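Onboarding guide, step 5: your first structure request.
Type a short instruction followed by the sequence, for example:

Predict the 3D structure of this protein.
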Amino acid sequence: MIAISLRSYRFLNAVIGVAFACAVAGVCAQGQNSAPALDFNADALWQVLAKHERALGRIDQRLFDESGTLVEQSSGTYRAMQPRFFRWEINEPDQQAIIVNEETLWHFDIDLATATRRPVTASNDLSALELLTGDTAALRQQFSVSPLDKNRYRLHPLYAQAGFVSLELTLQDDKIVRIEIFDRSSQQIVIALSPSDDPSTVSRSDFDFDPPEG
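The system replies with structure tokens like these:
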């Protein structure tokens, strides 16, 4: 289950899983040119997700328990770049960062000045990281898609290690602006994204990380 505290290891794992899904949405749904209007079907989502390489914006994240009660709220920023670069920073109520640069994932608790590292390729529960490639063939193999309306899609993971039951994506102007994650204990994470109109400033150096001494 997802624990209540943001400092909980299990909650962190859930956030990491959401972060990867969010990275896919952000990396693949932002670009310098807007995509043309697409027909209302599952293929429309794959077309949007395959187009762009960088993402930048703000996030507002809420966690609801199984009864629908708000138990956690946080805000911050995100940056992403294909093929495997992602930076998810929480600024309020505490300060934490999740940084992925190719094959390494860092979790940095800024308040406590502690950092942990894990190899993403060796962690089965992080297989959603593969979605960062924007490879629509891989996306089709890992998720089933059910269009809810022209701008909303429900995705169900097809791999056993997924930490969530389903997620819903909401698009606006071919950009992901909302992600709803439904976990295995009937809790829900809702992430509102405010994507930048110009993510071209995102660069490789944004994903460098030097852990604090000790």
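Each response can be followed by summary notes, for example: The longest helix spans residues 9-29.
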